[in-house]
């Protein structure tokens, strides 16, 4: 594998460049050293498809074993894309010895600099607890870039095509989970059955749920993960309990509360439930060990989604979530909870109501539409392809 480095990076890793040109550009990368949040960051860009791999928070000891770290960064990022581990290991094996050279020419340096500029956009998403930034690598690789002869390309899609040609077979294979997600409402039956890769983060899962129910992500959200222990109902004020955000209709007690905003920590919990920021936490950290979750969206309208783990799929053949079944139209944003939704439905079902036309227009603007599984899956796939997650 040829790593063509800027002079700044060559000086830091203390390697003398070799005169070597990789014939297969899939095994050739350009690398630059930049600083993000006062930490040394290396950005690798594949010469064939412009796929990006990011290393962050590197220390002197890491540069002493840079060969190993580069290979591991590429390995972990591709596996995190849900690419079959056998294919990833064969790619690493055929890459051969890691060799270091100088940057090739201004064209490649320009492509590398473009990738570095995109990484700067996502520095707030970098994780402090690992040098391997697979999430930012994937997100940067979905940023469309210009290619003279082809217009704009998605480096991630190009890498997938190149690896499929390399392997001679489909490349995706990962563990996934099938979930039934039910919107808790007294008068309506609204649910979706989803298959989601287990290496998805809870932030990604949030975006999948938004697409599945037609929400527009206007508001804050949180997750509760439930164990098998139940609350001692006899010692809790039942009215407070029902209105408690962690309430579970079967009485299960949460093991953790995952929040989407750091401001949540300004309000300490008094119920003993552990609270964590969801950033970087994957489904696999809690599923399938725990089989019950709740997703709360919009703390005003208080939409509560009960999530049940139905089965684990060991050889899922996609790298994105899909909806396989469902029923019922989800309410529009800001409708005012279930009572408001009932009033909304009452108005749009009566053409003689003076608010009929205005309410139809408002509902459409707020995302209200009939449940259509094809549209749901298009929206989920678009979110993965553009990595709006």
From TrEMBL:
It comes from the Bacteria. Residues 176-377 form the Plasmid pRiA4b Orf3-like domain. Residues 2-158 form the DUF6933 domain. PANTHER family: LEXA REPRESSOR-RELATED (PTHR41878), TNPR PROTEIN (PTHR41878:SF1). This is TnpR protein. It comes from Caldanaerobacter subterraneus subsp. tengcongensis (strain DSM 15242 / JCM 11007 / NBRC 100824 / MB4).
């Amino acid at each position: 594998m040829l790593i063509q480095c800027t002079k700044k990076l060559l000086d830091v890793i203390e390697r003398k460049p070799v005169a070597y040109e990789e014939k297969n550009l899939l095994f050739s990368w350009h690398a630059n050293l930049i600083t993000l949040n006062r930490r040394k960051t290396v950005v690798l860009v594949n010469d064939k498809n412009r796929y990006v791999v990011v290393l962050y928070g590197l220390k002197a000891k890491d540069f002493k074993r840079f060969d190993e770290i580069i290979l591991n960064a590429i390995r972990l990022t591709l596996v995190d894309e849900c690419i079959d581990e056998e294919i990833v290991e064969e790619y690493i094996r055929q890459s051969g010895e890691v060799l270091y050279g100088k940057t090739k020419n201004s064209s490649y340096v320009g492509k590398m600099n473009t990738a570095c500029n995109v990484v700067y956009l996502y520095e707030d998403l970098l994780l402090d607890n690992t040098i391997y930034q697979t999430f930012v690598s994937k997100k940067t690789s979905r940023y469309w870039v210009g290619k003279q002869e082809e217009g704009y390309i998605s480096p991630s899609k190009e890498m997938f095509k190149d690896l499929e040609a390399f392997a001679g077979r489909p490349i995706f294979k990962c563990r996934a989970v099938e979930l039934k997600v039910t919107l808790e409402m007294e008068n309506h039956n609204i649910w979706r059955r989803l298959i989601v890769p287990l290496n998805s983060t809870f932030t990604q899962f949030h975006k999948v749920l938004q697409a599945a129910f037609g929400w527009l992500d206007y508001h804050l959200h949180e997750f509760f993960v439930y164990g098998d222990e139940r609350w001692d109902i006899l010692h809790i004020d039942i009215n407070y309990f029902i209105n408690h955000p962690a309430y579970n209709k079967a009485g299960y007690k949460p093991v953790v509360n995952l929040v989407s905003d750091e401001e949540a920590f300004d309000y300490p919990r008094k119920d003993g439930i552990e609270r964590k920021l969801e950033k970087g936490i994957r489904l696999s950290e809690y599923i399938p060990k725990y089989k019950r979750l709740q997703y709360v969206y919009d703390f005003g309208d208080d939409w509560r989604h009960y999530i049940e783990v139905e089965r684990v799929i060991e050889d899922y053949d996609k790298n994105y979530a899909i909806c396989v079944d469902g029923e019922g139209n989800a309410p529009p944003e800001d409708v005012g909870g279930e009572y408001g939704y009932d009033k909304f439905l009452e108005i749009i079902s009566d053409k003689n109501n003076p608010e009929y036309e205005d309410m139809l227009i408002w509902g459409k603007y707020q995302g209200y539409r009939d449940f259509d599984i094809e549209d749901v899956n298009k929206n989920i796939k678009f979110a993965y392809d553009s990595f709006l997650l």
